[in-house]
User: Fold these one by one.
Assistant:
Number 1:
Amino acid sequence: IPEILSGVVEIKNIAREAGSRTKVAVTTTDDAIDPIGSCIGQRGTRIQTVIRELGGEKVDVVMWSADEAEYVSHALSPAKILGVDLRRDDHLALVKVNPDQLSLAIGKGGQNVRLAAKLTGWKITIAEEGGRVAADSEVGEILPDEPTALEPDAAGDVPESAAAADVKDAVAVAKGEPVEGQDAA
């Protein structure tokens, strides 16, 4: 991609689940350039070349932002995010979505939220508007459909006992260690 070679478009970070999907965060040094459009190309021609090189692996190109809440929101695309509250003490992003955007935000088998967490370096918890927690990237699980009392209080804290009970009863969709953020090499 010529704009990347010339330095006008910069890859800030990459999160990948090999053979399945990759998320790439990009930015630009020139406000007249659309970094996502530059990577995708007309009718997807540029990104299709990359996809072929990766053996058909899906590639999501998202906009990087210095504003961490905005970056988390972009990383969860294609879902439309209502809001992101950052809890800096435990590096947790509490994300609110409309119920019709929930499956997009989580992704197949929790993949979208896991990749977004890797890309941004934030643990991500997704909740429907109204408070029901639906997915947690840190534990790699999708939580059950029963309503919970996990609405943050005025200080932004989630009750520990309620969170622990829901996580304990969750259906695991990913095995292994909790997702931790990683920087691109």
Number 2:
Amino acid sequence: MNTDIRLSVGFWQHPKTRKTAKRLGLEGVRSLQILWAWAAQNRPDGNLTGMDWEDIEMAADWQGDERAFFEFCLGVWIDQAVESYALHDWKDHNSWASEADERSDKARFSRLATVNREVYERLKSDGINAVSKEEYDRLTSAQRPFDDRLTTVARSSNVTPSPAPSPAPTHKDKEGGITRTRT
């Protein structure tokens, strides 16, 4: 998961930033940066599929008039795709954040080499160099025996209790130099 985003040193002088501040105030610029940080963690590819104007304003923590942030950003900071939205040029300006899932998938695949070398080699020979979290979990989860009857300690196959030692051990205390045995 991403922990940061890139912000150009020229961001505050950029005409789009200045226009955002003029139309929405600094609260609008703040909300834009909150939206970018949210996207880095939740939509690292910058694709806002499944989100409507209200979802986007909530992700941006917009506190102003309803739809004002979204409507200003549309075409400026947010692009409209077929039946969805995307952050404008997100991959160009935040390539590190946008590639987070790919890096994680590749790291997971590398880890597979130490966990299950045989599967790793087979996948690698098939040209695979990354696995999703779900694939990794499936590839590394051990198959459990049917009903776990042979391995579950809670239901031991030996129902005979262990014998108690005889004679039973005693506890010895020393009081005032005298050894007493408690039973």
